Amino acid sequence: MSAEQSLAGKVVVITGSGRGIGKEMAIDAAAHGARLALVEVIKENLDATVKEIAATGAEVRGYHTDLGNEAQVIENFKAIEKDFGKIDCLVNNAMVHEAEDLVKTSLDSWNRSLSITLTGSFLTIRAVLPEMMKRKAGNIINIGTVNAKTMVGSDSYSVAKAGLHALTRTVAVRYGPHGIRCNTVVPGTIATDAWQSRVNRNPTIFENLKPWYPLGRVGKPKDISEAVIFLLSDKSEWMSGSEMVVDGGLLAGMAPMYKIVEGSD
Fold first, then answer.
1. Is 43 a catalytic residue?
2. 166 DSSP assignment
3. Is 157 one of the catalytic residues?
4. Tens digits of per-residue pLDDT, 180-231?
5. What are phi and psi of 186, to 5 degrees?
6. What is the pLDDT of residues 48-66, one digit of tens each?
7. In this structure, what CATH number is given to the domain that contains residue 152?
8. Contact between residue 97 and residue 145 where contact means Cβ atoms under 8 Å apart
9. Number of domains in the chain
10. Domain ranges, residue 233
11. Which of these is catalytic: 63, 157, 175, 213?
């Protein structure tokens, strides 16, 4: 099998797939032969992405879903299994990112972050596990963040993502004997339209962040997508419970600090 068809025949579900990283993953998975079920709450984004991917000849369907609504998740994931016959892989990418500190965070904002980013992933995982267990095969990827590993702001988002990291470990250990793998991809700053409100406030925000990244730039959606494609493929078949860090070196150390400590700045 060629590298380009490394996902041939696999049914891949991607949440939050209407824009940004999720859309990039969907496009790349289609190019590698996957059969795609796209889950997204913004219908116009969902429809546009489905149309774009379908134009390439790939098999793709969209499922308009609010991950904060348990009944919708259950209903739509049953529909996906009926439409495709199975679910091989699930990528939990959907999230809510509100950049507020704890004092400024309303209870509604806090609950919204946890509901979509963490509880929504719990609901999708719970929806796919029974059939995966029956088939003794399944592959789940959760998109985490460096915010779950070190304090870089956006408090409710960071807490929700830290819970998602823990959920990966739970699934990997508890359901590994059933042939199910679960891993986390850990992005650093990725320049997507999810940052637009912050870019509006500070148009140089990505330039300001560059010094913190040893590789000298913030990330692109493609950086994360390529890691996910590897984890979706059989090349990663003995990886489970892992955290694949894709962060340009951010977590390796505080890049602007060492020169000050050494007196070499």
1. no
2. H
3. yes
4. 999 999 999 999 988 888 889 999 999 999 999 999 999 999 999 999 999 9
5. -115, 90
6. 999 999 999 999 999 999 9
7. 3.40.50.720
8. no
9. 1
10. 3-262
11. 157
